């Protein structure tokens, strides 16, 4: 059987990777690979790492937890997601999440349609330039806040998601 020319096949350690605010993002499928239908990112989130409250105006975001414990805030609801848990946040829904465990958490993140993966690539540091997490600097946060609106990403005050 011959693979379709547009088929994607990656081994567990394959895909381009970037450090995004101290967490490892490995791009398994980008919009260019899927006709812009979706992007798939494997994320390894460090203990106590958090993604601030935000809203996507262009895409839905879905998560499948593989390892660890991620606490999601979804428009007033707190959900602790453990391995095997699936979470979907539709476009326009305020949400945030954080690793509440003592070990790194690993999960898949689908963006439908694609596009936001380019934001993560733009604000991140390619793994080839830094074999270990470079940490998070004030400049990283400034770059994220400046770049987010260009991708339809609205960063919110912390109180918005918990109301």
Structure description:
The structure is a single chain. The chain is of the alpha+beta class and 163 residues long. Helix content is 16%, strand content 40%. It is built from 4 helices and 12 strands, in the order E-E-H-E-E-E-E-E-E-E-E-H-E-H-E-H. It has helices spanning 31-34, 116-123, 138-147, 159-162; strands at residues 16-20, 23-29, 39-45, 50-56, 60-67, 70-74, 77-81, 86-89, 95-99, 105-112, 125-126, 153-155. The protein has a 7-stranded antiparallel beta sheet with strand order 8-5-10-3-2-1-11. Strands 7-6-9-4-12 form a 5-stranded antiparallel beta sheet. Strand 6 (70-74) and strand 7 (77-81) form a beta hairpin. It is globular and about 45 Å long. The chain starts with 15 loop residues before the first strand and ends with a helix. The mean pLDDT is 90.
Task: Chart the SSEs and their pairings.
Elements: E1 16-20, E2 23-29, H1 31-34, E3 39-45, E4 50-56, E5 60-67, E6 70-74, E7 77-81, E8 86-89, E9 95-99, E10 105-112, H2 116-123, E11 125-126, H3 138-147, E12 153-155, H4 159-162
Antiparallel strand pairs: 1-2, 1-11, 2-3, 3-10, 4-9, 4-12, 5-8, 5-10, 6-7, 6-9
Specify the number of helices: 4
Summarize the amount of helix as a percent range.
10-25%
Got a strand count? 12
How far apart lie the N and C ends? 53 Å
Structure class: alpha+beta
- Overall, the morphology is globular
How would a crystallographer describe the biggest sheet?
7 strands, antiparallel
Radius of gyration: 15 Å
Strand line-up of the largest beta sheet: 8-5-10-3-2-1-11
Ranges where pLDDT stays below 50 over 5 or more residues in a row are none
- Helix-strand pattern: EEHEEEEEEEEHEHEH
